[in-house]
């Protein structure tokens, strides 16, 4: 099992930026897929971005392409989500998730979208609020 701790959420005005961090601990020896998800109030959890830690392959939801960037620091077992040009519709609880023994990023996609059902390990979440 992988333990995940997110940080970096907060409140910003539209057009601002935030960087989320997700530190992984525990059994991180295998190739992993890691992802960022978000859940606005009253809505379903959706995939935002994902990365394969071994191949550095990435995927993004259409709604964040060109504004969000997922990256990793393998030495720190940490992934990041740089969020620029934030919009009020980005307001949500953001979660980090991981899947061990993940050999390709394709394996966590469903219909081309990062699927939360493919990730067994989750962090506690961090709130992002964007005001207009």
Give unreliable regions as ranges.
Answer: none
Round the Cα radius of gyration to an integer and report it. 14 Å
Helix/strand order, N-terminal first: EEEEEEEEEEEEE
How would you sum up the global shape? Answer: globular
Helix content: under 10%
Q: What's the number of extended β-strand segments?
A: 13
Name the beta content range.
Answer: over 45%
Oligomer: single chain
What is the helix tally?
0
Secondary structure layout:
Elements: E1 2-7, E2 10-13, E3 18-26, E4 33-39, E5 46-52, E6 57-60, E7 68-73, E8 78-83, E9 92-99, E10 109-110, E11 113-114, E12 121-122, E13 126-131
Parallel strand pairs: 2-13
Antiparallel strand pairs: 1-3, 3-8, 4-5, 4-9, 5-6, 7-8, 9-12, 9-13, 10-11
Overview of this structure, please?
The chain is mostly beta strands and 132 residues long. The chain is 0% helix and 52% strand. It is built from no helices and 13 strands. Strands 2, 4, 5, 6, 9, 12 and 13 form a 7-stranded mixed beta sheet that branches. A 4-stranded antiparallel beta sheet has the order 1-3-8-7, with no helix packed on it. The protein has a two-stranded antiparallel ribbon with strand order 10-11. The protein is globular.
List keywords for this structure.
132 residues, mainly beta, 7-stranded mixed β-sheet, 4-stranded antiparallel β-sheet, 0% helix, globular
Short description:
The chain is an all-beta fold. It is 0% helix and 52% strand.
């Amino acid at each position: 099992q992988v333990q995940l701790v997110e940080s970096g959420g907060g409140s910003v005005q539209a057009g601002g930026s935030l960087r989320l961090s997700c530190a992984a601990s525990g059994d991180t020896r295998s190739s992993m897929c890691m992802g960022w998800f978000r859940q606005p109030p009253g809505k379903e959890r959706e995939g935002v971005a994902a990365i394969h830690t071994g191949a550095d392959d990435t995927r993004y939801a259409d709604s964040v392409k060109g504004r969000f960037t997922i990256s990793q620091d393998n030495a720190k077992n940490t992934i990041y989500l740089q969020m620029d040009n934030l919009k009020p519709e980005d307001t949500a609880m953001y979660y980090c998730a991981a899947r061990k023994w993940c050999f390709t990023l394709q394996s966590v996609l469903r219909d081309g979208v990062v699927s939360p059902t493919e990730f067994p390990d989750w962090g506690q979440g961090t709130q992002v609020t964007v005001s207009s």
